[in-house]
């Protein structure tokens, strides 16, 4: 299909839609006028005070009746909406299958994830080593003294006398 043909068809569709919208608006206006004529007759204001008071009472009674009707309709609508929600839940339960949303992979550091969960007010730091206690190692001085000079130990153990010292040390 050529672009000119597409453009022509599109313009025809738009013109038909516009005419349908105009007809629908005119029909709604006629419906409104007909309803107003049926339910709201022309108002004729009386000249005396008593007649005016009687008209006001009559109008208040009509307003009360309309409010009651509106309240009843509102109650029916809310009741129907609750029933619809309950039925939807029952249908989902009967199916037994729940749709799992497709999750997207998100690359986020642990700090950024916690900050997103807790909000920007809280400062989150995932440095776990910062929260650990500082323990100082005690240096054993006895071992250093026992080691001493290595040449001296070798000379003491050399020869027959050295073997005797090793034997005595083991026993």
TrEMBL record:
<dbReference type="GO" id="GO:0060048">
    <property type="term" value="P:cardiac muscle contraction"/>
</dbReference>
<protein>
    <recommendedName>
        <fullName>Troponin I</fullName>
    </recommendedName>
</protein>
<feature type="signal peptide">
    <location>
        <begin position="1"/>
        <end position="28"/>
    </location>
</feature>
<dbReference type="GO" id="GO:0003779">
    <property type="term" value="F:actin binding"/>
</dbReference>
<keyword id="KW-0732">Signal</keyword>
<keyword id="KW-0009">Actin-binding</keyword>
<keyword id="KW-0175">Coiled coil</keyword>
<dbReference type="InterPro" id="IPR001978">
    <property type="entry name" value="Troponin"/>
</dbReference>
<dbReference type="Pfam" id="PF00992">
    <property type="entry name" value="Troponin"/>
</dbReference>
<comment type="similarity">
    <text>Belongs to the troponin I family.</text>
</comment>
<keyword id="KW-0007">Acetylation</keyword>
<dbReference type="GO" id="GO:0005861">
    <property type="term" value="C:troponin complex"/>
</dbReference>
<keyword id="KW-0514">Muscle protein</keyword>
<dbReference type="GO" id="GO:0003009">
    <property type="term" value="P:skeletal muscle contraction"/>
</dbReference>
<comment type="function">
    <text>Troponin I is the inhibitory subunit of troponin, the thin filament regulatory complex which confers calcium-sensitivity to striated muscle actomyosin ATPase activity.</text>
</comment>
<dbReference type="InterPro" id="IPR050875">
    <property type="entry name" value="Troponin_I"/>
</dbReference>
<dbReference type="InterPro" id="IPR038077">
    <property type="entry name" value="Troponin_sf"/>
</dbReference>
<feature type="coiled-coil region">
    <location>
        <begin position="18"/>
        <end position="97"/>
    </location>
</feature>
């Amino acid at each position: 299909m050529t672009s000119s043909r597409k453009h022509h068809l599109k313009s025809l569709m738009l013109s038909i839609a516009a005419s349908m919208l105009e007809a629908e608006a005119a029909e709604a206006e006629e419906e409104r006028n007909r309803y107003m004529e049926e339910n709201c007759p022309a108002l004729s204001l009386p000249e005396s005070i008593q007649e005016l008071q009687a008209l006001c009472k009559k109008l208040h009674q009509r307003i009360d009746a309309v409010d009651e009707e509106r309240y009843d309709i509102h109650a029916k609508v809310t009741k129907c909406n609750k029933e619809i929600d309950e039925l939807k839940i029952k249908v989902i339960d009967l199916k037994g299958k729940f749709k799992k949303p497709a999750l997207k992979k998100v690359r986020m550091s642990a700090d950024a994830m916690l900050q997103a969960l807790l909000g920007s007010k809280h400062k989150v730091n995932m440095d776990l080593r910062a929260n650990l206690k500082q323990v100082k190692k005690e240096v054993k001085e006895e071992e250093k003294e026992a080691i001493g000079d290595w040449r001296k130990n070798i000379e003491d153990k050399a020869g027959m006398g050295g073997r005797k010292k090793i034997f005595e040390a083991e026993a």
